[in-house]
What does this fold into?
Amino acid sequence: MKIEDKYWRDPVLLAAVAPLAVVMIAFFLVPLVMTAVLTFQTTQYYRLSWSWDLKIWTEVFSKPHYWTIMVRTVVMALVCVAICIAIAFPAAYALATRLKTFKTQIQILIIFAFLTDAVLKTFGWILILDKNGVANWLLMHIGFPADALNLLFTPAGTMIGMVYNLVAYPMFTIYLSLVRIDRDLVLAAYDAGASRLRTFFEVTLPLSRPGLYSGAVLVFVLSLGAFLEPKVLGGGTAPLASELIRQSFETRVNWPLGAALTMVLIVIGALMLALSSAFALRRRSAPGRPA
Amino acid sequence: MVSPIIDAARIVKDYGSARALHGVSLQVGAGEFVALVGPSGCGKTTLLKILAGFEEPTDGRLEIEGKDMRGVPAASRPTRMVFQKLALFPHKTVAENIGFPLKLQKVPVAETKDRVRGMLDLMHLRPDYLQRYPAQLSGGEQQRVALARALVSRPGVLLLDEPMSALDAKLKKSLQAELKKLHRELGTSFVLVTHDLEEAMMLADRICVMRGGHVVQVGTPADIYYRPANMFVAGFIGETNFLPVAAVLTASGVQVTSPLTPGASAEIATEHVAPSLSEKGTALLVRPESIRIVRNDAKAGEWTLEGVVEEYFIKGSSTQYRIRVPGLEAAVIVDLAGSIVLPARVGETVRIGFDPTQAFLLSE
It folds into this structure.
């Protein structure tokens, strides 16, 4: 099918696109616009009143408390990305190159862990991280003091939960990138005189970049919205953006504030994505290089 | 050969319980062009991988440039490989691909640049290709880049793993001609793996024919064509005819008789007899171009057979006939000089003849 320059006049094309367009508009664009509109409204006596007012936005920009939480959320997300990649890359590399015999079994185990409900897994970590939990019990038995680890209800606890729940994503994207690398390219590097380490940095790592980037982006976006882990394992001591937004909507019944904070989080996420994709594109700087 | 650059002796390679190479020995002289040929699964690629250092032989000794290669990794060998699928680095430009071996040897940037440009000239590639990526080049251009990358570090031996199998016939011919010229100019030893004996004949100084992990014959293209070791080698080079005969040793050669030509016998001189002749399945190798159609002009000593024309193909310089002869399993293939007047039509019964003393006697 040839798509004309004036494709918007083609009734068949319009009809074919219509269902998707309706779904996208109804469930993506409309809520987003509604959220944006909501930020200009005011609440009085737990009631929304229709107005165009910048009151909420002045509040958002004047209270450093909100920004502390936003910055903390972004930092936690970035740290989570770093830790996830650091764990996922070697695991995916081993799976793609070394552990071929048990590949299927290991993949099934990872998928099982991945598909188990996140709430269950997160609560499961309480049993491990608790002062009288499994981790301390094990450490005690190899000679550490009884309360060597004190991770539950700390940001570190939150991080452990986030990493645990998200690490499978980059593991799969990186694995897929690695298995697509032609074995001959590695042999060609050896043949040209490269050591194993050099081959890794010259061939394997650059060619696994698509998986690295997409894995990192997935983890980052999902970390920004982390809700469960700071609540269950962080104990609410260092709330993240999602908790702040929930409080605005539910506890304080200040919907315009919640909407404004949501917009801030969306903009931060979009900016980070734009930055990282600009970075990714710059690295493959070829003019007219086929993607 | 005074001092071979490659000296492989009794190389054995097992994959699990399967034996891929059964004690293969091969020597390659300095500056020589050797082709390894055989059907798929004959072990030619395995042997090449062992030379490159991608595989360790299970048993046997391999010396390259006089040094034992046991435990020497591919990176430290004086060999460079051109891969079947070329294996150009997709994320590196043409300049980075060609310069990669020099970068690893820490050759200064200015010298690398000069040598990469020199390779580009040698391969007839345009200088503005340097900043392109392999995916932006045509198949033939990628081929040249792969050759340039393999040759830029001036290796002692260039290994080629069927690098032209993916190209169309015309491009293949022109690259074959260039490869031969390149070999003459550089004086580097080339080892080419191919399943195409015709390609091997065109390019190589010596051909090593392999089957089932054994070397069947090593020799010059003329040896392989005119003095094949057995029916496998003779049949591998292209379509040909085998006439089963009974052979009896005599003082000056071999006396042969054929059940298809009763009463006729011929004496085959020793130089027309395969050295490894065995009792089993002796046959006369009669090339399609040495058979003619006999009308009423039979010559003395000529053996003649009668058959029906099954099919013919006009090839231009020659016309090929397939003639069904009663008592022979395969149709006899006859190549006649091309002419506008066809000497015979499909379904016609013709008499074909050849001189048995000019045929070659071999066995299975």
About this structure: Chain A has one domain: 64-285. Chain A touches chain B at residues 182, 184-185, 187-195, 198, 202-203, 206-207, 284, 286, 288-290 (CB under 8 Å). Residues 285-291 of chain A have pLDDT under 50 and may be disordered. The beta strands of chain A are 42-44, 47-49.
